[in-house]
Specification:
There is one protein chain. The protein has ten helices and five strands. By secondary structure, the chain is of the alpha/beta class. The chain has one domain: SGNH hydrolase (Rossmann fold), CATH 3.40.50. It has a five-stranded parallel β-sheet, with helices on both faces. The protein is globular.
């Protein structure tokens, strides 16, 4: 499967990054430190979220938590990424995500659907259902957009790319148009597989995502001294 990914992802587009990794059981967050947080953000996604091939501290959820706390926002960010997961898999574990009691969910899914040629209408419905379930539980959602490699054909890639703005508009949630903006296709920012970002690539992703997260934070979210 890895070789197929390399062929399909020569142009490294954000939806093509998850199919080549083995799927794992949903991660169980480590026991939380005895400290008070203002709230919880759960990063839900595939290998792009999980941080395939990099240290946990270099994946974007950890970098985002560090950035928020350095700015005085005492929020924790839980990495709930599963390598190889499709949107159907994500939908099946929404209940597990909700048990983490998030105020905000960053949703990055669908890339493996595209790699497998799944009907974009199916992917769109899955993502819309995920967002709807989260909203019904009063969770704010930031939807990360994906794109598929041109090798999948113009009609398919256009239909796939249209999923994310359509769902965001329909559901009234924030949209980060392209999760790998500024990272996709740059050898210096990706691992040797040409698919998964290195730590610096994740830093760029984190910086691009950060404004959307700030917009999603509750107005009452206090800013205190930076976390030590």
């Amino acid at each position: 499967m890895i070789n197929i990914l390399k062929m399909s992802l020569l142009m490294i587009i954000p939806g093509c990054l998850i199919g080549g990794c083995d799927r794992h059981t949903p991660p169980v967050p480590a026991k939380l430190e005895q400290r008070t947080f203002a709230g919880t953000i759960v990063a839900v996604g595939d290998s792009l979220t999980a941080g395939y091939g990099v240290n946990e501290a270099d994946a974007y959820p950890a970098q985002l938590e560090k950035k928020l706390q350095a700015a005085g926002f005492q929020w924790r960010v839980v990495n709930a990424g599963i390598s190889g997961e499709t949107s159907s898999g994500t939908l099946s574990r929404v209940g597990w995500v909700l048990r983490l009691k998030p105020e905000i969910v960053i949703l990055e899914t669908g890339a493996n659907d595209g790699l497998r040629g799944i009907d974009p209408h199916v992917t769109k419905k899955n993502i819309s259902d995920i967002v709807q379930l989260l909203k019904e539980n009063r969770v704010s959602v930031i939807l990360a957009g994906m794109r598929m490699a041109p090798s999948m054909g113009k009609d398919y890639t256009s239909a796939f790319a249209a999923i994310y703005p359509a769902v965001a508009k329909q559901q009234g949630v924030k949209l980060m148009p392209f999760f790998l903006q500024g990272v996709a296709g740059d050898p210096a920012l990706n691992q040797n597989d040409g698919i998964h970002p290195v730590a610096e690539g994740y830093r760029i992703i984190t910086d691009a995502l950060y404004p959307y997260v700030l917009q999603a934070l509750p107005a009452k979210s206090s800013i205190g001294a930076p976390a030590s």
